[in-house]
Amino acid sequence: MRQLNGLYTQRFNQRHQQVGHLLQGRYRAILVDKDHYLLTLCRYVVLNPVRAKIVKNPGDWKWSTYRAMIGDDQGISCLTTDWILSQFGKERQAAANQYQAFVRSGIKAESPLKAIKGQLILGQDNFINEIKHLMRGKEKLKEITREQRYLTRPPLNEIFKPKDQKSKDQVMYEAHLQYGYTLKDIAEYIGVHCSTVSRAIKKIEWEDKK
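Given the sequence above, the corresponding structure tokens read:
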């Protein structure tokens, strides 16, 4: 996604003789519980232009998938509409009508993104527990993002609870090396500069090598 967004930005800037960033923020992926949240999330996406007050009706935004979903546009060749429409009925036009009503009912609804757990998972407790179980033991797989690899790690307030015979430096070392917290995460939590955390970790590493 980084490569795709980067190449798109370059082409856009060349075409319009612009420079600098085009897309706001980095690409972010979350794991979604299809049975409970996917439809709500799809509705949230097509209502983005309405919430931003760019258009009054989601169908007025021609770059959305909404028009293809309700049959007003053919849509692009890679767009799949069958699964979402099948959730609203077997007959296509009736399902499209139900889909439109579902989208309209969400205009003033709260963002489903507020229910994301651990900055990664959108789902109910049983779904979250299943994902956590799958992620155990995957902490060293660099192909998986840090947030996903350390999904089961304890929060910093638990790691920094007073422990027998453990110095603060040792706890910082474990938080960073064992649980994958960044120097910035640790520094902000305990209220020190990143360099302080870095020195403490290097000190423990040097002592371990003795």
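Residues 154-210 form one domain. Try to locate this feature in the token string yourself.
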